[in-house]
Amino acid sequence: MNTRKILITGGAGRLGGYVIKRLNKHNLTIVVLNDKEEKKNKDYNTIRLDLTNNTQMKSYRFDYDIVIHLAGSVDYTLQYEQLYKINVLGTRNLINNTMNVPMFIHTSSTSIYGKSVDNPVKELNRINLDSDYAKTKFLSEKKVLFRIREDNQTIILRPSMLYGRGFHSGYFTMIDQIKKRKYKIIGDGDNHIPILHADDAAQAFEKTVNKFGDAELMGLKLMNISCKPTPTQNELIKTVCDIIDAPMPKKHIPLWEAKLLAKLGEYYYKLKGERKPLQEYINKMASDRIFDISEAKRLIGYKPKVNIEQGIREVIDEYESIRTKSKNKKRTQGFK
Predict the structure, then answer these.
(1) What is the pLDDT of residues 224-248, one digit of tens each?
(2) Model-wide pTM > 0.90
(3) 4-164+194-228+289-305, superfamily in CATH?
(4) Contacting residues for 162 by C-beta, under 8 A, at least 6 apart
């Protein structure tokens, strides 16, 4: 069997590391597209191209069997124009230059459904673009539609909120607040938070790649990729508390009050010339969302494996490691 050639945009990023680790178990030649200089890596070859520069993209011959498009920005502090350039224009340029690639796997997001949903959310549910990030992810999906043909495979995966080693945005703040006995549960805490371990997300990419040439994946396929079961806010907080041996928070804060404080906080940071997506964090923690993953199970055999305790323990271990290094660094500087 010939070795298949696979190009991964954003392969040097956080999720890329998980995906490449899984794909290296198979008979594949992996090439990572990056816009920055990178040290030589034994796991893959690299090419340096800027996705947002169409002139550069046109100069390269995309002779691959599979393209996995992971590159993009999840930075809620960026202006819409910056997110659009990275997430939409980058995708457009890639699509325009890979029309003849047999399999294209695009990374979208469950954010396109918004925070107010009817559970469980299926792939054809109502779209509600309630953030700049969600708008650009949906627009990038629309660019992908241009390559749909009956004789190729165009797959759009929509992962939910990622966590695990390397994914600590928001989680470290939560751990800090729980450790300091300052954390307040938003609302009654019974809402479901769709966290997805990065290795489970990578599993979905691996299983999709394994279906290369499969008739069932010809044309366009949309798949939600999330956890099962989906933990509630209370369950998530209790897991953290049990691992770090802290008491379960007893104080609750009404959603309206949490949103108001977040809005005031954003205004404060804006006066300092900074952008902090505090309202987005509150909305994610307080929304009740469960994503239906039955389509991914049917088409590629996807089944999340990482349980919440195992995944949260990884995040806490990384939290403790980073905090320890920070303390040691300050202590060392104190002796200079």
Answers:
(1) 999 999 999 999 999 999 999 999 9
(2) yes
(3) NAD(P)-binding Rossmann-like Domain (3.40.50.720)
(4) 14, 15, 195, 196, 197, 198, 201
